[in-house]
Design goal:
By secondary structure, the protein is an all-alpha fold. It has 2 domains: 111 residues; 67 residues. It has 3 helices and no strands.
Length: 196
């Protein structure tokens, strides 16, 4: 945005200079036309005076003025050519600055689109993270209830001692395995005695 502002300020300066130069060019063209008109009038006057030999003594100052006017016209034409060249350069600079402004705006628009896309993806990821956390808490709660029921069932059987401290998963597994083994041994003993 700072770059665009800077480019727009340069563009305004260049356009102002272009308007000023164009105005100067128009003024020079007006002066050139006036000089040409005067030159034409002097030429007409010289032709008229050359036909009248009695006015021969007036030819010298008129020729000098005519020469001076021709020199002034030449200078005005030279200045006009310089102004045209400057105007052309200024127009090129203005076109370049406008192209840079458009390019900067396009670049900023693309950056804004990319930022919006990233923001949208971040919000989607946050939503998925929240859903995952809720699901994990639910699974953890169910697992803890299930584990508590297993511990309660395991250590509430006859002959089992209730745990005095936090029970590890290995201890629970060993206690369950012991109960299963005892049930199998009891079952085998009943089968040997013929009890169904």
């Amino acid at each position: 945005t700072g770059t665009i502002s800077s480019l727009q300020r340069q563009l305004e300066i260049q356009e102002s200079q272009l308007r000023r130069t164009t105005s100067e060019k128009e003024m020079l063209q007006r002066k050139l036309r006036e000089q040409e008109n005067r030159l034409q009038a002097m030429s007409t006057k010289i032709c008229s005076l050359s036909e009248e030999r009695e006015h021969g003594e007036m030819m010298m100052p008129i020729e000098k003025e005519n020469c001076s006017l021709r020199q002034a016209v030449t200078e005005q034409e030279s200045k006009l050519a310089e102004q045209n060249k400057l105007i052309s350069e200024l127009q090129g600079t203005v076109s370049q600055l406008r192209a840079e402004v458009l390019s900067s705006r396009h670049h900023i628009h693309k950056q804004q689109q990319a930022q919006q896309e990233i923001q949208s993806r971040a919000e989607a990821l946050q939503h998925r993270e929240l859903q995952t956390r809720v699901a994990l808490e639910c699974i953890t709660s169910r697992f803890e209830r299930y584990r508590s029921k297993i511990i309660q069932a395991t250590f509430s059987t006859a002959g089992s001692k209730p745990p005095q401290a936090e029970v590890t998963d290995e201890e629970v597994l060993e206690a369950m395995q012991k109960i299963i083994n005892e049930r199998l041994e009891f079952h085998q003993m009943l089968k040997q005695k013929g009890v169904k």
